[in-house]
């Protein structure tokens, strides 16, 4: 394909300030298209709100019209572009390359007030071309400067041209590439895109001490949820630098998973390989972005997003991360439907994008008393610590044999501790294993488990502790305890079931000496029982 040129229509009418609100659009669409370069380039309106400013005219040629004459604009109050302002209309139309080779594509347009841009950078002139791989698409927008212009006039010339030429084989060593050169000369950068998770970056003709900016254009670290947007090198001392980037939601090859004392949640990994000495570059800024919907779904505050670098020893160290201000995002022409971040480092390695999260741990728990009667309270005190990197609030739960019986809510900053108290109340006798959020506390004895296992009647007023009924003959029940009622049943008779194996004496056969000894034995047994009931169970 020789150098190909197509002249197209552009109309931008200036109106009084306040008439036009800029919006943002999105992707490529199927459907009719203006074809350029023998059909190898397809030009279409973008699929999004700003795509209405582009349409195919009666000759099936793309027309850009930001005025009331645009047939796509139904709002009768719309007249054109505001005067005395600057702004960007992103994602107006797309150019898709459909041939089997690589092509350099750019736009020719002479105006001080209107600039065609791709990803916020000018695409005007061959020096600012983008290189498209087969079936690759670039989205074009307009940067406007209407300061000093009068309302009612047309902004800029009424025609622009799309130009393209086949890229030479030696220019395209990778499977997909785009080449950019800064305005007024300077370094030439080439970005190759073998696939969605890899990029190759090359900068040549670099002046000593110059800054080099590479655009990664959404290289995936964790699908489209977290993407690499670019890498900037400061103070480059080599005439040529080259590095490759690979992204993955999982640890990269020959790397380890992110581990740190605050236990952050990794969301994506970035591995960098480079051909220059570390001291050949002063610093590097990593620019990445996240889908706001993904942050909301995972409950991640943008302020808690951070970057970790893996050291030569295999440890992970945190790097400060800055959330890019929305005004800066607009000025730089970055996608406004994403949250943008940047982190600066002076060392190169493998990196991990992560989210700081609260991490609550129970570090100590006590129980007092350890034995209670049914319906009484025992107090559990637990010390909780937030060992994570973010503040948080959480419900802490007390369980008995795994069943929740109480909970308290605690809010803690990173490294902060707090003590929470629970009132544990159990109505049924038994031994219960208590725990706070799975951390064992101890065993709580309720009533007398031995009496409970004997199968006594809980409702009897003659029972030793309400957990079982005592016998009525002054003997011992199944637990070996003496009846506090003095050994008689409710009718005043003697219980024959515990009479013993020896002969039974008649009441008249007991003299006062023997009776005194018997009463003394009963009193001692009752005192022993009372003492036993008041001793803590262990």
Automatic annotation (TrEMBL):
Keywords tagged on the record: Membrane, Transmembrane, Transmembrane helix
UniProt keyword Metal-binding, yes or no: no
Pfam families: CARDB, DUF1102
Transmembrane segments: 512-532
Region spans: Disordered: 170-200, 443-511
InterPro entries: CARDB, DUF1102, Ig-like_fold
Compositionally skewed regions (Acidic residues) per UniProt: 480-499
Biased composition (Low complexity): 174-193
Domain CARDB: 362-436
Superkingdom, natural source: Archaea
Gene3D superfamilies hit by this protein: Immunoglobulins (2.60.40.10)
Biased composition range(s): Gly residues: 465-478
Protein name according to UniProt: PGF-pre-PGF domain-containing protein
């Amino acid at each position: 394909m020789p150098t190909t040129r197509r002249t197209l229509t552009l109309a931008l009418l200036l109106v009084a300030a306040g008439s036009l609100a800029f919006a943002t659009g999105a992707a490529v669409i199927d459907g009719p298209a203006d074809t350029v370069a023998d059909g190898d380039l397809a030009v279409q309106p973008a699929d999004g709100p700003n795509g209405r400013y582009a349409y195919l005219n009666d000759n099936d040629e793309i027309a850009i019209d930001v005025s009331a004459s645009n047939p796509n604009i139904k709002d009768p109050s719309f007249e054109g572009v505001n005067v005395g302002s600057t702004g960007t209309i992103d994602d107006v139309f797309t150019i898709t390359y459909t041939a089997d080779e690589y092509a350099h594509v750019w736009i020719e347009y002479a105006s001080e007030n209107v600039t065609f841009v791709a990803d916020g950078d000018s695409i005007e002139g061959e020096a600012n071309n983008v290189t498209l791989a087969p079936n690759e698409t670039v989205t074009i927008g307009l940067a406007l400067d209407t300061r000093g212009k009068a309302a009612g006039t047309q902004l800029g010339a009424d025609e622009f041209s799309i130009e393209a030429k086949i890229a030479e084989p030696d220019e395209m060593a990778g499977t997909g590439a785009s080449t950019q050169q800064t305005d007024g000369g300077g370094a030439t950068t080439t970005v190759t895109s073998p696939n969605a998770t890899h990029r190759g970056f090359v900068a040549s003709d670099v002046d000593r001490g110059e800054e080099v900016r590479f655009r990664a254009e959404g290289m995936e670290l964790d699908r489209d949820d977290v993407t690499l947007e670019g890498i900037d090198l400061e103070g480059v001392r080599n005439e040529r630098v080259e590095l490759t980037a690979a992204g993955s939601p999982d640890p990269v090859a020959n790397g380890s998973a992110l581990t740190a004392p605050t236990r952050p949640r990794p969301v994506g990994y970035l591995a960098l390989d480079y051909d220059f000495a570390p001291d050949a570059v002063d610093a590097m800024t990593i620019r990445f972005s996240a889908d706001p919907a993904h942050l909301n779904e995972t409950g991640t505050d943008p302020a808690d997003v951070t970057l970790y670098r893996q050291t030569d020893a295999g440890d992970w160290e945190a790097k400060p991360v800055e959330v890019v201000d929305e005004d800066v995002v607009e000025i730089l022409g970055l996608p406004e439907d994403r949250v943008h971040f940047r982190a600066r480092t002076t060392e190169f390695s493998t990196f991990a994008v992560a989210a700081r999260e609260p991490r609550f741990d129970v570090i100590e728990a006590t129980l007092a008393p350890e034995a209670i009667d049914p319906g009484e309270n025992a107090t559990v005190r637990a010390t909780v610590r937030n060992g994570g990197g973010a503040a948080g609030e959480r419900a802490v739960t007390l369980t008995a044999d795994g069943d929740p019986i109480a909970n308290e809510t605690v809010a803690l900053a990173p490294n902060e501790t707090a003590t929470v108290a629970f009132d544990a109340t159990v109505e049924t006798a038994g031994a219960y294993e208590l725990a706070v959020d799975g951390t064992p506390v101890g065993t709580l004895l309720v009533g007398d488990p031995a009496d409970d296992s004997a199968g006594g009647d809980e409702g009897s007023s003659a029972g030793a502790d309400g957990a079982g009924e005592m016998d009525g003959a002054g003997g011992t029940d199944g637990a070996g305890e003496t009846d506090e009622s003095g050994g008689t049943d409710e009718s005043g008779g003697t219980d024959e079931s515990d009479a013993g194996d020896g002969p039974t004496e008649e009441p008249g056969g007991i003299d006062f000496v023997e009776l005194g000894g018997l009463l003394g034995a009963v009193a001692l047994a009752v005192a022993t029982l009372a003492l036993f009931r008041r001793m803590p169970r262990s």
